[in-house]
Amino acid sequence: LSAGLLTVAVAGNVINAMLPSAQSVGALGLAVTALSAVLYYFAFVPPRWLRRAWQFEELSDYFAQTKLTATRKPTSREIFQQLCMSAKQTVNGLASAAIRKGEGMERWETLATTDPLIDTTALQSGHRLLQEAWQKRQSIAVYVPDLKDGDERRQMESVGARTWLLVPILASGHRWGILLLLLRDRSLFIEDDLHLLELFTQQCASVLENYRLIAETQGYSEQLEARVNERTQQLAFLANASRVLSESLDFSDILSRMAQLVVPQLADWCSVDIVDEEGVLQRLAVVHRDPNKLELAHELQEHFPPKPYSRHGAYNALQTGQAIIIPNVTPEMLMDNVNDPEMVDLLLKLGCESSIAVPLLARGRTLGTFSLIMGESGRHYGESDLALAEELGRRAALLFDNAKLFGETQEMNAELEQRVQERTAHLLAVNKELEAFSYSVSHDLRAPLRAINGFSQALLEDCGDNLDETGHEFLGRIRTESQRMGQLIDDLIGLSRLTRTEMHQAEVDLSALARDIAANLKSQAPGRDVYFMIQEDIVSYGDERLLRVVLQNLLGNAWKFTAKREHAQIEFGALFGNGEPEPAESTEFYVRDNGAGFNMAYVNKLFGAFQRLHAMTEYEGTGIGLATVQRIIHRHGGTIRAEGEVDKGATFYFTLGEKA
Amino acid sequence: MSGQELPGRHILLVEDNPNDRILTERAFKKSNLGNELITVADGEEALTYLLGNSEVAPQPLPILVLLDLKLPKVDGLEVLQRLRSHERTRILPVVVLTSSIEQDDLVRSYKLGVNSYVRKPVDFNQFVEAVQNLGLYWLILNQSPLK
User: Fold this and answer.
1) Distance (Å, rounded) from C-alpha A106 to C-alpha A435?
2) Partners of residue B102 in chain A, C-beta under 8 Å
3) pTM of this prediction?
4) CB A317 within 8 A of CB A358
5) Quick one: which of A13, A402, A418, B115 has the most CB atoms within 10 Å?
C-alpha cells in the first residue's frame, strides 16, 4: 500500500512538471494531477495485488509440491526441474534454468531447464553477471538494454530475453546453484518477482539441504549398520572358529582346521607355520580357495618354507610378536622380502595382493605364525581384518597350546603306564621264577637228603656190627645234619613264601595271640619256671596268621634264651603315646625277657637270615626266625628294633604301620 | 610188572627216584606189611598198569596207590586226574607221597580227589613211622568198597 501511495505522489509531481502552464491553470492542474493519480493508482495497484495473490498461490503450490515425503525421495534434478517450472510459471517468464559452477570448474553446468533456449550461448553471454551473483551470493535483476557494455548487451540481447533475473540457491552457506529466469521484456514488478524468486530458491535450497541431511544421516546409519554387520559376522566367525578348533585335541590338526576356516571368508589362501625346537618355522599347511591352485599351494608347502630369519612376513611376526598387515603387496616388495625369484613367482601365481601375518602367542611364547593372503579376489586387508586375524590367532594359539600340553601329558602318561607295565611284567616274571625256584628247592633238594639220611640209617642197621663206636657216632651226625638241612630248606622256603603270599588284614587281638602261644610253650616244658606278663586288650590291625608267626618267633626266642634262668620272665606289651587308649600307627609293641641277651655291637646282624649270635650247641635254631619276623613287620609297613645286654636280657620293639 | 597174575592185595608205588624206591621198599619191609609192593617209574607206566592201553590189558587193581607228584612223562596230578575220571579206578585209594609242601599241590591233589597227602620226611625213621601208619590205616582200619 505505501508503494502505491508513493506512486500516486510521484505521478502527481510528474504531471505538474510536465504542464508548464499549470500555474495558470491552477486548480485544474491539481485536479488533473489528482485524477490521473487516482486513475493510475487504480489501473496499476489492483493488478499488482491480484498478481501477487496469484503468485503466492503458485508459491504455496510449490511449497506443497516440495514437501518432504517419506515414501519417495526425488532426485536433485527433479527438485531443480520443479523449481524452474514453478518459478517460470509464477513470474510468467520466457525460460528458466538452474545452473551451477562446480569446484574449480570454468563452465557453467545446467542442473535443470525449462527451455533449450538457455543454452551455452545464454550462459556464456551472462557469464559476468552469473559470476557476480555466484560469488556475492546476491540476487541480481538486469534489464539488458540498460547495460553499459555494448558487447555484453548485444550478446545478451541475442538470447531474446531483455530481463534477466539471477537468484542464488543458498542454504546454510552452501551454494546449490543459481536460478536463472529470463523475461521477454521489462517487468513492472521486478522487485516483487525477485523477492518471490528468492522465496522459491530458499524453499528449494532448504528442501535440498534437508534431503542432503537425510541422506547423510542415512549414510551414517548405513555405515553403522555395515560396521555392526561386519562385527557380528566376525564374532560369529570367531565363535564358530573356537568351536571347530576346540573339537580337536591334536595340535597340528587344530592349525590345519584354522587354515581351512579362514579360506575363503578371510583370505584367498592361507599358510600356517609352526616353530620347531631350533626356532625355525616349519610349514604345516597351505590352503587355497581355488581348487586348481591346490597343487601350487602344496608345492609352496613342500618346497618353499619361509627362509629362516628373512624379512618374510611370517618371520617378521615371529620375531616381533606382532601382527603385520600389508594392505598392498607389490611384486617388488615380495622380491625384497622373500629374496627368491622362484618363490616370488609361485607366490604371484597363487595371488598376492594384500597380506596379514599373525604370530601364534601363548604363555609368552610364539608357537608359530599364520599368514592370510588376498590374491585373485582383489580384496585388500584393513584394520578390522587385522583385529579379527589377531583375535583368531590368540584363540587358535591358546587351543594349540592346550592341545600341545594335553598331548605331552598323554605321552607322559602313556610312557609311565608303559613303564609300570614293564615293571609289573618284570616283577611277575621274577616272582614266577622265584616260585619255580623255591618249588624245585623244596622238592629236589630234599630227595638227596632223604637218601643220605635213609642210607646212613640202613648202613647203621645192616652193617652196624662192623662199625665201632666212632663209626656209629659219625653216622648219627650224618643223619642229624641231613635233618637239620631239611629244616633249613623248609624255613627258607617259608621265609620266601612270606613275601609272596597275599595278606588278609583285619583286627587282631595280640594279647590273646600271645596268651595262646605262651600256654603252648609252657605245655612243652612244664618243668620250667617262666612267668609271662601279657598286657590285656592289645588289639591291632594286620594279618593274623603272619602276626602269629611274629609272636611265635619273638616269644619262642624269649623262651629259648631264658632257658638257663631259674626264674625266667617274659613280657608282652604296648607303649601307647600320651594318653592314647588304643594302638596307633606309631604305637610300639614289645617282647622283653631276662634271658641271655646280646651284645649291642652285633645288633645289626640280628635280623639277617642264618645269622646267629649264639653257638649252635648253646641254643638251637636255624637263624631264620628274626629274619622272618622282620619281613612280616615290613610287609605291614612297620619297623622293628632290638635292645639287649649280655646276660641281662633282650627287648624287641615293633610297630605295625598304618591300617591298610 | 610182568603179566604174571597178582593177588588183589598188592600196593602200587609210582616213584621215579631209585633211592626213594629202595628206601620205600625198606620202610615197607620194616613196618611188617605183608602186602606186595609193585613199583612203576613214571606216570605213563602207572596209567598203563592201571588202565591199560591199545596194546596192553590193564593189570589187576592194587589195594592202594602211592603216588609221587613230580614224575617224568605224565606227572602225578595228571595221573590222579585220569584215574578219577576212569570208571575202573574212580574209587581206588590213592595216597600222594611227595617231597612238596606247596599249598598249591596240596589243594589241587585234594580237588582231584586224592584220599591222603603225605609228605616224605627227611628222617628215615619218621618215614618208616609214616609208612606204618599208612599201612595200618589203608590196609587194616579203612573199610574200602573194593575189598
Assistant:
1) 115
2) 439, 442
3) 0.47
4) yes
5) B115
User: A572, A542 in Cβ contact below 8 A?
Assistant: no
Cell digits of residue A630: 622282620
For residue A327, which amino acid is it? P
pLDDT tens figures, B41-61: 999 999 999 998 888 888 888
Q: Is cis: bond before A331, omega within 30 of 0?
A: no
pLDDT interval class at A509 (50, 70, 90): very high
Instruction: Give the H/E segment covering residue B12.
Output: strand B11-14
Which residues lie below 8 Å from residue A470, measured CB to CB, with a gap of 6+?
Answer: none
Question: Please, what is the Cα angle at A178 between A175 and A180, to 5 degrees?
Answer: 175
ipTM for the whole predicted complex goes beyond 0.90: no
Asked whether the beta carbons of B136 and A466 are under 8 A apart, the reply is: no
Do the beta carbons of residue A274 and residue A368 sit within 8 Å? yes
Q: Do the Cβ atoms of A143 and A157 come closer than 8 Å?
A: no
- Interchain CB distance below 8 Å, B124 and A486: no
B53 — phi, psi (to 5°)?
Answer: -145, -165
Nearest CA in chain B to A457: B124
Element (H, E) at A370: strand A365-374
CB atoms within 10 A of CB A506: 9
Query: CA-CA distances (angstroms) from residue A445 to A415, A434, A450, B42?
Result: 43, 15, 9, 20
Residues of B in contact with A442 (CB under 8 A): 99-102
**Cross-chain CB nearest to B122 (options A444, A453, A493):** A453
* Of residues A454, A485, A490, nearest to B127 (C-beta): A454
**What angle is formed at CA B115 by the lines to CA B109 and CA B121, rounded to 5 degrees?**
75
- Cβ of A451 within 8 Å of Cβ of B26? The answer is no
Largest CA distance in chain A: 216
A610, A624 in Cβ contact below 8 A? yes
Q: What DSSP element (H or E) covers A361?
A: strand A354-362
Cell matching residue A401:
597350546
Q: Which residues contact A450 (CB under 8 A, 6 or more apart)?
A: A482, B19, B20, B23, B99, B120, B121, B122, B124, B127
CB-based contacts of A636: which residues, under 8 Å, 6+ apart? A503, A542, A543, A546, A656, A657, A660
SS3 state of residue A203? helix
- The DSSP code for A106 is S
Question: Using one digit for the tens of pLDDT, what is the confidence trace for A439-498?
Answer: 777 778 888 888 999 999 899 888 888 889 999 999 989 988 898 888 888 888 877 777
Cβ contact B122–A451 (<8 Å): no
H helix runs in A126-263, sequence order: 127-136, 150-157, 190-246, 251-262
Task: Tell me, rounded to whole angstroms, the distance of Cα A374 from its chain centroid.
Answer: 24
Q: Which residues pair with A370 in a beta bridge?
A: A272, A358
Quote the DSSP letter at residue A282: E
End-to-end CA distance of chain B: 22
pLDDT tens digits, A100-146: 887 777 778 888 888 876 776 777 778 888 888 888 888 998 888 88
Distance CA A615, CA A602 (A): 14
How far from chain centre, in Å, is Cα B56?
A: 20
Nearest CA in chain B to A454: B124
Contact in structure between A539 and A508 (CB atoms under 8 Å): yes
User: With 0-12 CB in 10 A as exposed, 13-18 as middle and 19+ as buried, what is A461?
Assistant: exposed
Query: Is the CB of residue A655 less than 8 Å from the CB of residue A585?
Result: yes
Contact call for B98 and A439, based on CB within 8 A: no
Do residues A354 and A328 lie in contact, with contact meaning Cβ atoms separated by under 8 Å?
A: yes
